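Hi there. Long-time user, first ticket. I'm pasting a complex I've been working with (about 577 residues overall). I'd like to know whether the download I got is complete or cut off, because the file seemed smaller than I expected. Thanks.
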Amino acid sequence: MVYGLKKRFHMSPLLETHQLVKRFGAMTVTASVDLTLEWGEIHAIIGPNGAGKTTLMGQIAGELKPDEGTIFFENQDITSLQPHGRSRRGIARMFQVAHVFPASTVLENVMLAHLSQRGHGFRFWKNARSDRESRLAAMNFLEQVGLENRGEALAGTLSHGEQRQLEVAMVLAGNPKVLLMDEPTAGMGPEETARMIVLLSRIKGRQGLLLVEHDMETVYQLADRVTVMVYGRILASGTVEEIRRDESVRKAYLGDEKEEKEANA
Amino acid sequence: MTFRRIFCFVFIVFFATLPLWSDVFHTRLFTRILIFALLALSLDLVVGYGGMVSFGHAAFFGTGAYMTGLMSLHGITDALVVWPAAAGAAMLIALPIGALSLRTRGAYFIMITLAFAQMIYYFASGLETFGGSDGMRLLARNTLAGKEFLRHHEFFYYVAAGFLAGAFLLCRRLTGSRFGLILGGIRQNEKRMQSLGYATFPYKLTCFVISAALAGLSGALMANETLYISPSLLHWTQSGHALVMVILGGMGTLAGPVLGAIVLLLMEEILSAFTQHWMIVLGPLLILVVLYARGGLYGLWPQKKVSHVTPP
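Hi, the file is complete. Here it is re-exported in full:
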């Protein structure tokens, strides 16, 4: 449906990179990457280790400066924008390692994420922790990820999986248009992974989600579109089915994984 | 909890009645302790809550004291004018120092704040109008609304106590406010705060400047207590002294620095009566606290939430 709308109104993609290049010394880690993300879709980026997926995410989030190329968000050039500026426009980043504030409570963590989108924080007098409105808003996001009973716990005391759930709540609280997620299920047990997949599929359709993921099962369950990266360039891009059938992908990546699995076994 | 309440009650009664039963020497000693507690409290706002380890707080302390001296040289002696001016001068100096220093972090921030403070120290040492490195005697304490109330040591004690209590309550509001919440996030993970959409620099600078204002105020009070200003108020050992109070008492708490100032200065006073080499006793004691009581003395206190500081 989203695609239909796009065609009818000649909408451009929500997020688009144009000929993005990033070099570390002599090594080109992002080689002329063209990538688009549409409203409401989950676009997964897969590829072997060192394919430049995380570097690409870093450039889109604004932590790394590309050497060449442009990044468009809602038709505007955001290439020179700082990370907080991009975040304010609606690009939220979820990190590979959960980056919560360990010494603050779970509720405070979400409140911080929520407040960042609501004007300035130069309020010096009123108690922020007991502010009814932002407490309720934060609780709402905690309910969405199933952490409503952990609001008063210190975030540092949560389990790994819970911290990732909290991270999702924080990302959602920022009300972003684009979610950048770096291996949301990394290091999770099967149960936590399943819960995360349910959580992400619920988000689907509300935002654009760019997902870097190693676990093929997660990708097949969630993604609308898959882009395969190898050595910094895009090898193939298409629907899950197309990627599964693609010969070059099989050779370069999926085959490798099979061998890896066999080697591991 | 009840034990805690009793302790707080005794603590407050002790400090509230002290000038009534104490001699002048001890009243003045505790006045100095309260003033240093104010300095330590202001430093903890930056170090414990903001996560910025400043080694140059003497710059703001000394600026407050020198502003008091400067105005008295020009015949302006009323506290209602002088003290806000002292706090304002400290803020004015903190603004460029903070704006430049806050571009660095960690050890670099420590070194650059130290460097700025030493610059001001040497600048003050060269000021002939203020007696250069010898310092300058002030003629009298500031007047209060034209009256010479502050001449009485007991009254001045209560003024210092009032400022400390006021600053304590102010910091409590501040750290519990939206600003305080954001500051806590920046301390724990600045990069994450940026990715949430916060421009962190203005918050850090604001915290730095507010802290400098309180430090400047404590400097003005100190100049009034000792009636003497000298570059030693600006020396880096002064910054270190305040930092020790904060660490000893427990950073990231409000009661900690106050407790640290009281304990440290009392111990200095008591130990120095026994031996000239009191630092030999105090030094190892500090190392023990740092090694075994991470939350400082206040952290040893049984309670639910020990400290706001992230455990390493």
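A couple of notes from our side: Chain A has ten helices and ten strands. The mean pLDDT of chain A is 85.
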